[in-house]
Description:
Layout: H1 2-12, H2 20-34, E1 38-42, H3 43-46, E2 57-62, E3 72-77, E4 80-87, H4 89-97, H5 101-109, E5 111-114, H6 116-128
Parallel strand pairs: 2-4
Antiparallel strand pairs: 1-2, 1-5, 3-4
Helix pairs in contact: 1-2, 4-6
Amino acid sequence: MFSEKLSSIVRDNPCLAELREEFCRLIAELLEEYRPLAIIIGGSVAKGRFVMGLSDIDVVLIVDSVGRGERFALKTLGNVNVEISAYTPSEVVEACRRGNQFIRETLIYGRVLVGEEIVGEIREMVEQAGTLEDV
């Protein structure tokens, strides 16, 4: 499941090793709470450039619908902020069309923990629209 993928992310970001168990619990909580179609880890963690004390952890949830107050959440793992953003597939496509750099980079460089198939479908839609060239 996602724990093997998370282990790979931690191997690429050794300073996250001490947070691995907490990170795993957080992902399990997000799966239960949001029932996402996909979970993508973005930003410096996805690129293997996480720096303890400077970086945060970006988590993008792809969901069927986003309720009021569910778009953004902030959690912590130890003293590391975890920024959680929720989008529907159509919102991701539209964000890319409008040039949203964070979403584009997440689709290009992000590490998919859950929902590889739906993320692949979204990437295809965005590529067909011509809005996923390298950033």
